[in-house]
Specification:
By secondary structure, this protein is α/β, with parallel strands linked by helices. Helix content is 30%, strand content 25%. Strands 1, 2, 3, 5, 7, 9, 12 and 13 form an 8-stranded mixed beta sheet that branches. The protein has a 3-stranded parallel beta sheet with strand order 4-6-8. Bound molecules: oxaloacetate ion and magnesium ion.
Length: 201
């Protein structure tokens, strides 16, 4: 079954300026995939999820997804967390850049990591390994998936920064974004106060 609910572009853009830590804290510290890390020092991003569920180590579905994905969307791939075979490399990253994809979030491994940094598409994954992918399927597109233990539905808002990934469900997005702004203001107050502390205060 496919569930597609779309967040408004304004809300999605609004989240790009919010740290993933604050987003997590603003939704009871849920919605934060574990084990996926930025593969290079990319800029923060936010976009809607285009999901792929694939057999571990097989990227046929990723190629099919890149023919359908829209500019600004985030390709979210449930590869079952398999780390022994890369699901993408520089060629897939080149394709993603051409399609103006906001980022690639891979619950699996990648390769060609140096070239990917040059290409400039943010990529989050579990591991780097030279072994390449099979290209046989099976796969499903635009279906609910799990990445790093978090369910991602097509159209969920995906945010990434140096700390990792946050997932926001569109029906809660406006409320979560408002809570994020409150928390940012509160943290700024605490930060200012702590800066004034002297030893033994
Ligand atoms: O062979 C593949 O599909 C993965 C890869 O190395 C690339 O995308 O450059
Ligand atoms: Mg390659």
């Amino acid at each position: 079954m496919t569930t597609t609910t779309t967040g408004s572009p304004d809300l999605t853009t609004g989240f790009a300026a919010i740290p993933t830590t604050i987003i997590g804290d603003s939704q009871d510290r849920f919605g934060l995939p574990a084990g996926l890390h930025p593969m290079w020092n990319s800029e923060p991003f936010a976009g809607e999820a285009f999901t792929v569920l694939t057999a571990p180590g097989d990227n046929l579905g990723i190629h099919k997804a890149l023919a359908e994905i829209r500019p600004g969307q985030v390709l979210v791939v449930d590869g079952g967390g398999y780390e022994a075979r890369a699901l993408i490399g520089d060629l897939v990253a080149e394709k993603a850049r051409a399609m103006k994809v906001a980022a690639l979030v891979i619950d699996g491994a990648i390769r060609d990591v140096m070239d990917i940094a040059d290409i400039g598409v943010p990529v989050y994954a579990r591991a780097v390994i030279p072994a390449g992918p099979w290209k046989n399927g099976p796969f499903r597109l635009s279906t609910p998936v799990t990445v790093g233990g978090v369910v991602v539905n097509p159209g969920d808002i995906i945010v990434g920064d140096a700390d990792g990934i946050a997932v926001i469900t569109p029906p809660r997005a406006a409320e979560v974004l408002a809570t994020c702004h409150e928390r940012l203001a509160h943290e700024e107050e605490s930060r200012a106060k702590y800066r004034e502390l002297k030893p033994n205060d």
